[in-house]
């Protein structure tokens, strides 16, 4: 059988191989072209973008928050300081699962619901590459526990920080104020660049008013990190600039004496140096511990303070409204002299009550059987209501309002602490505008003894008394005395007061009124004689009692049958020495009853402390 032979088609095979080679070559060229184009895009067109991303993987910019300035009293005693503490912080972009991480941290460190909620709020205000505080003030045990488990929590670490602390606690809660965590409202008004890395901001008092001085300027450092985010080395840094230290006029010893003298009573004590306007003491009770607010107060604790009927968060020194009562009488007496309505020797008969012409209603004097014939000195010394009913009726409410306006009644004093109230000095125009009512003659009478619509704040009362003590030279109250920049040895005085004199026709009128106030304390029938006992100089003062509620014409006020919250407010103003004053004090004791029995002894203790007066105690020999 013949065998078959198959001849190869070399031409066909060659064409097939060539086709494959061409396809492979074209494909290679295309792939190479794509690679080249991509390289051009990466290395030329998008070089800066990817270079930046690359650097962010190895270079971090960390803010260096400034150290907050310290606050001292006039003696150099520290009132606000910075103490080291540990805080637990997270960088969100480095955490795979934030919710799971928080749950595990809660089990490890017993985080509360408040801690988690506040962290979530802060998280919304920060960028994902910024550190966000989870909890501050970790204990040593918590730091050790976390350190042993740190490998379980990428993006979470412990940072050492300085935190605000108030070593005097309650004593300066209102005057110095406190710092608190920066919230959304704060973020709208601050320079966010300068507050990077800062956790707290001034919320009240000096801390708030002088925030720009105390905070300082933020710095930063550029660091290289490894893939785990650990710092390998520091590339460069710009140091932060610490805030200024502040020195107050306030004296811690006077502040403590005032607080202790108030005891269980609510109220306020304000003391000033009338020569400079420096506020030497500013007490508001009840008070609170400002340290509770620094790291974030719990909802329960804040609710207790907010809902307390005694309102410990309310600054009575700046915002408390009280009828001035008889402490207004020296100013009304001066108005009578200056406007020519009375003279020093004009007398009024006090039978224990006063009636307007053509009316039967009796406006009673505190002394129900009357004071008899009294002149200006007697009227102020014995606090005769009838004398001032008659004087107020002769002056009229509008002239009285205009004169009291000179002393700042119804106006803010301009003290360098925020949230001061205006108080109220009534007039016909005020009543018509605010209440759409006419003014009645009887309202003028009770305004003349500091009752009715009159409302004053303790700082306002102290400021007006200071103007009276200085014979018309008025100076705005000032809490901060000086500042010192970081690194400087010298202090810079912060005297921003505008000093001016009141226009008076006869300077002798000042002396007549001040003599009558000296009679209050050193006169035989003065209402506060015990204040001047044993003092080496003359003191001028005035007691005051302000009704909390009205009583019927034929009823008698009996404190023993009333709840304490219905007792009269007790007030007292004084300055010393009377002829060359350097100390002014205003005391308001809520529901304290008599100004002479409750408020005046507090002022006496303040005067003794300021002038270093030590009472001698007679020792009886052993029997």
Automatic annotation (TrEMBL):
Job of this protein: Catalyzes cross-linking of the peptidoglycan cell wall.
The Penicillin-binding protein dimerisation domain, residue ranges: 64-235
Organism, as annotated: Methylophaga thiooxydans
EC number(s) on file: 3.4.16.4
Catalytic residues of the enzyme: 326
Signal sequence coordinates: none
GO CC annotation terms, alphabetical: plasma membrane
Penicillin-binding protein transpeptidase domain sequence ranges: 267-607
Any Pfam family matching the protein: Transpeptidase
One example of a Gene Ontology biological process annotation: regulation of cell shape
Pathway(s) annotated for this protein in UniProt: Cell wall biogenesis; peptidoglycan biosynthesis
Localization per Swiss-Prot or TrEMBL: Cell inner membrane; Cell membrane; Membrane
InterPro entries named among the record's database cross-references: Beta-lactam/transpept, Beta-lactam/transpept-like, PBP_dimer, PBP_dimer_sf, PCN-bd_Tpept, Penicillin-binding_protein_2
Entry-linked PANTHER family: PEPTIDOGLYCAN D,D-TRANSPEPTIDASE (PTHR30627), PEPTIDOGLYCAN D,D-TRANSPEPTIDASE MRDA (PTHR30627:SF2)
Top-level taxonomic group: Bacteria
Name of the protein this chain belongs to: Peptidoglycan D,D-transpeptidase MrdA
Transmembrane feature ranges: 21-45
Reaction(s) catalysed (UniProt annotation): Preferential cleavage: (Ac)2-L-Lys-D-Ala-|-D-Ala. Also transpeptidation of peptidyl-alanyl moieties that are N-acyl substituents of D-alanine
GO molecular-function terms, A-Z: penicillin binding; peptidoglycan L,D-transpeptidase activity; serine-type D-Ala-D-Ala carboxypeptidase activity
The family this protein is said to belong to: Belongs to the transpeptidase family. MrdA subfamily.
Keywords of this entry: Carboxypeptidase, Cell inner membrane, Cell membrane, Cell shape, Cell wall biogenesis/degradation, Hydrolase, Membrane, Peptidoglycan synthesis, Protease, Transmembrane, Transmembrane helix
Record's bilayer topology term: Single-pass membrane protein
């Amino acid at each position: 059988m013949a065998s078959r032979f198959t001849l190869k088609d070399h031409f066909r095979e060659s064409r097939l191989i060539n086709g494959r080679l061409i396809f492979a070559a074209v494909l290679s060229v295309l792939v190479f072209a794509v690679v080249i184009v991509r390289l051009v895009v990466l290395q030329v067109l998008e070089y800066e973008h990817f270079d930046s991303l690359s650097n962010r993987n190895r270079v971090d910019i960390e803010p260096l928050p400034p150290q907050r300035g310290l606050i001292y009293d006039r003696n150099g005693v520290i009132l606000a300081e910075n103490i080291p503490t540990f805080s637990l912080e997270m960088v969100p972009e480095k955490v795979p699962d934030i919710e799971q991480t928080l749950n595990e941290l809660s089990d490890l460190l017993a985080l509360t619901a408040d801690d988690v909620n506040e962290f979530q709020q802060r998280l919304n205000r920060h960028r994902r590459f910024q550190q966000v505080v989870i909890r501050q003030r970790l204990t040593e045990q918590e730091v050790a526990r976390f350190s042993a488990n740190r490998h379980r929590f990428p993006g979470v670490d412990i940072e050492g920080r300085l935190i605000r602390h108030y070593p005097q606690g309650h004593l300066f809660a209102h005057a110095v104020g406190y710092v608190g965590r920066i919230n959304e409202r704060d973020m709208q008004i601050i320079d966010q660049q300068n507050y990077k890395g800062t956790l707290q901001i001034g919320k009240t008092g000096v801390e708030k008013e002088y925030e720009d001085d105390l905070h300082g300027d933020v710095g930063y450092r550029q660091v290289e990190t490894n893939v785990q985010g650990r710092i390998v080395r520091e590339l460069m840094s710009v140091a932060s600039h610490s805030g200024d230290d502040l020195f107050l006029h306030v004296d811690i010893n006077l502040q403590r004496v005032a607080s202790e003298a108030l005891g269980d009573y609510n109220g306020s004590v304000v003391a000033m140096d009338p020569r400079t306007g420096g506020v030497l003491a500013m007490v508001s009770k009840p008070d609170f511990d400002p340290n509770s607010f620094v790291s974030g107060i719990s909802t329960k604790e804040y609710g207790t303070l907010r809902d307390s009927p005694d309102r410990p968060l309310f600054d009575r020194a700046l915002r408390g409204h009280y009828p001035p009562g008889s402490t207004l009488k020296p100013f009304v007496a001066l108005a009578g002299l200056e406007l020519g309505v009375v003279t020093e020797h004009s007398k009024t008969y006090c039978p224990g009550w006063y009636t307007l012409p053509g009316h039967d209603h009796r406006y009673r004097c505190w002394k129900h059987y009357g004071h008899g014939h009294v002149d200006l000195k007697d009227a102020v010394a014995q606090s005769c209501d009838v004398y001032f009913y008659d004087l107020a009726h002769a002056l009229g409410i509008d002239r009285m309002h205009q004169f009291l306006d000179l002393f700042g009644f119804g106006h803010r004093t301009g003290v360098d602490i925020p949230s001061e109230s205006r108080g109220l000095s009534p007039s016909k125009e005020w009543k018509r505008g605010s209440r759409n009512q006419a003014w009645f003659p009887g309202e003028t009478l009770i305004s003349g003894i500091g009752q009715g619509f009159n409302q004053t704040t303790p700082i306002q009362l102290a400021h007006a008394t200071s103007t009276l003590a200085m014979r018309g030279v008025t100076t705005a109250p000032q809490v901060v005395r000086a500042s010192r920049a970081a690194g400087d040895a010298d202090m810079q005085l912060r005297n921003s007061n505008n000093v001016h004199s009141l226009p008076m026709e006869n300077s002798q009128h000042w002396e007549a009124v001040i003599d009558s106030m000296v009679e209050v304390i050193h006169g035989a029938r003065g209402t506060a004689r015990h204040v001047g006992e044993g003092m080496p100089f003359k003191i001028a003062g005035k007691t005051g009692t302000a009704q909390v509620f009205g009583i019927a014409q034929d009823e008698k006020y009996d404190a023993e049958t009333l709840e304490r919250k219905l007792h009269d407010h007790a007030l007292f103003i004084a300055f010393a020495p009377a002829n060359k004053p350097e100390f002014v004090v205003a005391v308001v004791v809520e529901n304290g009853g008599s100004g002479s029995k409750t408020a005046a002894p507090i002022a006496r203790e303040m005067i003794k402390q300021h002038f270093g007066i030590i009472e001698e105690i007679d020792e009886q020999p052993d029997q």
